[in-house]
Design goal:
Layout: H1 3-6, E1 12-15, H2 19-29, E2 38-41, H3 47-56, E3 61-63, E4 65-67, E5 88-91, H4 96-104, E6 108-111, H5 114-141, H6 153-162, H7 166-175, H8 177-199, H9 203-220
Parallel strand pairs: 1-2, 2-3, 5-6
Antiparallel strand pairs: 4-5
Helix pairs in contact: 2-3, 5-6, 5-8, 8-9
């Protein structure tokens, strides 16, 4: 049975996968949906998916969703019965049946626009992954510290997300390219400030930059 045939008569359709796959799924199911169907997705960015849904779905109701659950591991062997317990699920519009569905499996829902979601995700999730990829790409170019010397806990924390699926994360970053690019630019500005302070050996400037980051980190994490 193909995807389009599979959604015929369904009350609830959940689209899962990389953002580009969800976009293709939306196009494929558009003509077979029941008028009363509810369609949700679990994509890591929302604007491209919402735009596609508005353009192609002329039946049913679409609600963009993003449950903040899971980690860098993949495959059924890492499935967890309590994966969604206590997790936030972003929704791009209020719908009682959708909110009831997420609450039933342990999530609490938070309303957010697709634009605001993607701006937030660029900083909270996408940029940290980019930094981890860049860090370990840089380490690999030189003479990386060997295991005999031990691994610093800070490096281990960053290593976890650098182990994420390459194809999936290439898809996620491209789906939110503008917001991620903006976040990278702002990061580059701050990194440049730190580098300048180091090269000029200005301890007070370094301390000021670190203190500013410290204050912000206490507010957001």
């Amino acid at each position: 049975m193909d995807l389009a045939e599979g959604v015929r008569g369904a009350d609830l359709v959940i689209l899962c996968g990389p953002v580009s796959v969800i976009v293709s799924q939306l196009k494929a199911i558009s003509k077979r949906l029941s008028p009363h169907a509810i369609v949700i997705d679990v994509g890591s960015s929302k604007r491209l998916i919402e735009t596609t849904a508005k353009r192609h779905l002329n039946r049913g109701v679409f609600v963009g969703c993003h449950p903040m659950a899971g980690d860098e591991k993949k495959g059924v062997c890492f499935a967890k019965a309590d994966l969604f317990e206590g997790a936030v699920c972003f929704v791009t519009r209020r719908h009682p049946k959708v909110e009831r569905f997420w609450k039933r499996i342990g999530c609490h829902t938070v309303l957010i626009s697709a634009k605001k979601h993607d701006q937030w995700a660029a900083w909270a999730s996408h940029l940290p992954h980019v930094l981890s990829f860049a860090l370990f790409g840089s380490v690999g170019r030189g003479d990386p510290p060997g295991r005999p010397y031990g691994v610093n806990p800070s490096l281990r924390d960053l290593a976890r997300i650098s182990k994420s699926d390459p194809k999936l994360w290439a898809d996620i970053l491209l789906s939110n390219a503008a917001e991620v690019s903006n976040a990278i630019t702002r990061f580059e500005d701050n990194l440049r400030d730190l580098k300048t302070a180091l090269r000029s050996r200005r301890a007070s400037r370094l301390a000021t930059l670190i203190a500013r980051a410290n204050r912000i980190s206490h507010r957001v994490a």
